[in-house]
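Lecture 7 notes: from sequence to structure.

We start with a single chain of 502 residues. Read the sequence below before looking at the structure.
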Amino acid sequence: MKFLQKLVPGLFALSTYGAVLAQPAVIPGDYPDPSVTKIGDTYWASATTSNWFPAYPLLKSTDLVNWQTVGNIFNKVPDWADYYFWAPEITAENGKVYVYYTAHKKGGNLCVAVASADRPEGPYRDHGPLVGQSDGSIDGFPMRDETGKLYLIWKEDGNSVKQPTPIWAQPMNEERTALTGEKKELFRNTDAWEGNLVEGVSMIRHGDYFYAIYAGAGCCGTGCTYATGVARAKNLLGPWEKFGQNPILADEGNWRCPGHGTVVEKDGRYFFLYHAYDKQTNVYTGRQALLKEFSFTADGWLTFLPNTPALASVKPVSPRLNDSFAGKTLSHLWQWSVFKQPDFGVRKGALTLHAQPSKLGSAVAQRTITGNYTVTTTIDRKRSAGQPGLAAIGDDDNALGISLEGSALTVWRLERGKKTVVATQPVGESRKLTLQLRAQQGNRFSFGYATDGKTFQTVTKDPINGAFLPPWDRAVRVGVLAMGSAGESSVFEDFVLENTQP
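Now the structure, written as tokens:
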């Protein structure tokens, strides 16, 4: 133990806002199905965005534990797809970067597709679907067999129609634009712990074996049952043997339902970047990215190490995010619905968001990373028209928010597309108005306002239950919105998110 403390200073006292955690998230917030690869001396990662856009964040790190978001893979929806941007797998070979990803095909089902770039930052060129079975195809992973032949590994999404979920392998051309030859099944969900599916395969070759680290059971939501198993084979096409003591990674410490990640090597050590839910904030902060070390055993299997020493101290996440809109566009951290591209402009320290005539209007939002936080935004009423607001958002049909309508504030609830008024409050005619949203335990929301930016008054008497907000595969976002008629716009001078302890 003393040796490890010397090797990694601060490892056993890592904290987030003062709370000691045995294993902090290396990418906190909603970053499901994380993928990682090394390009040069830098590690690059991405993750599922589902129906939030832009699709697939690009993060980089030099130590595997401290990450910076530097862009997104898709800033425009690929022509063939419409939603469900899942499970990117980022890889590099021969000077090219490839991202295998899953998306829903217009008029069809889920497909595995590929995009490429000359450098990890992009821009990425989409090459379209590689495979799209009638039941859906997801979770693509490239792998070379023992002869060097390139294959695509993927899951047939049989669980979506109450069928088994085969893991397939099929040859792929070197351009990564088409599959060739015949597909072959490697294995499927046959063990009790796997439930109705196996998915999210990440492969590595070590010694005499190919190893497939995979996820089984239910990935998402408060009732998730996800866990991680391993299988091995001496040849890529099998026969494959599952470990008799699976799952090798299950609920542990402050984390539950771990799985769907990618293996990465650093300095002769092996790590698994994967996602799990925080037991306290659960679905409200989403599936966060964790890093765990594993080693190979004498009998040819692998085991995750308890109390894995990190490669460097995880820097505490800043308790305060303050966007003063000082640039010429929104930062890479902002997201919006894939179904509603917002029309906005950033100029001279203000965000102008043009209204859309829908129940939620036009919205841009950020991930949350704790269950307890306060969000404020200041509206320039003289330059705003329509109904500017602030909200906690699950998706287009589920949100809780506060908005200005003329000289009164309205707190409202949008659930399953039905909007109801919770409270109203006259606010006079001050030019500047600061809206406030407060969250407790991830799902209890209160709303207030200030005319001087400092002294807040509460609009809602009691906290509102927002347990209905997150969809099955996503987490809560918080952001600003502009409701009203086409041609109207709202002007926001800042966006401040402060995380607090319970």
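The first helix runs from residue 2 to 7. Keep this in mind for problem set 3.
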